[in-house]
């Protein structure tokens, strides 16, 4: 069995979990999320904890059952944490003239291209932008859905990936880019 799958998930106060037709639904103060669980995994809710067990009678092969065991446990755990605490990602725009602003969930990026880039974020994601003098612009994204938040961060990062020569691009806050020396270092 998977050692991750064996760990029980404790349900915090204010969060309700229900199972119907193989779909686990989690409701909390930050929102509501649902996830379909494969039929080879049994989901059990008792004593304020959620546990997952492998259904030995299911015809799915053993390795696949093991993989599902840890996968669905992690997905449901992310949902429980998301609806109770939420997830937050902070990104930083490093580069001369790079700017970001938002009107509601419409975010406008100015990243050195000839045109501005607009992205409409889903209503589940809250966005906040901050631009201060002599500081890199910062964009903060918050959501209850960890998977959706990661997807949006990857999309935003793809507009200007960090490059190793000057260190410019869209980075996560605190991320360190390994720098390369340019052509002049080899000429000596």
Could you provide a short overview of the structure?
The chain is of the alpha+beta class and 188 residues long. Helices cover 23% and strands 36% of the residues.
Structural notes for this entry:
The protein has 188 residues and is an alpha+beta fold. The chain folds into two domains: 2-83, Outer Surface Protein A, domain 3 (Alpha-Beta Complex); 85-170, Ribosomal protein L6 (Outer Surface Protein A, domain 3), CATH 3.90.930. It contains four helices and 13 strands. It has helices at residues 3-6, 62-84, 146-158, 183-186; strands at 9-10, 16-20, 23-28, 31-36, 41-46, 49-54, 87-94, 99-103, 106-110, 117-120, 126-130, 138-143, 169-172. The strands form four sheets. A four-stranded antiparallel sheet has the order 11-12-7-13, with helices on one face. The protein is elongated. The chain starts with a helix and ends with a helix. The mean pLDDT is 90.
End-to-end separation in angstroms reads: 58 Å
Topology pattern, helix = H, strand = E: HEEEEEEHEEEEEEHEH
Oligomer: single chain
Number of domains: 2
Q: Which CATH architecture of the largest domain would you pick? A: Alpha-Beta Complex
Give the DSSP E fraction (strand runs of 2 or more residues). 35-45%
Give the number of helices.
4
Q: What top-tier CATH class of the largest domain fits best? A: Alpha Beta
Uncertain runs with pLDDT below 50, 5 residues or more?
A: none
CATH homologous group name of the largest domain: Ribosomal protein L6
**What class, by secondary structure content?**
alpha+beta
Strand order of the largest sheet: 11-12-7-13
Averaging pLDDT over every residue, what do you get?
90
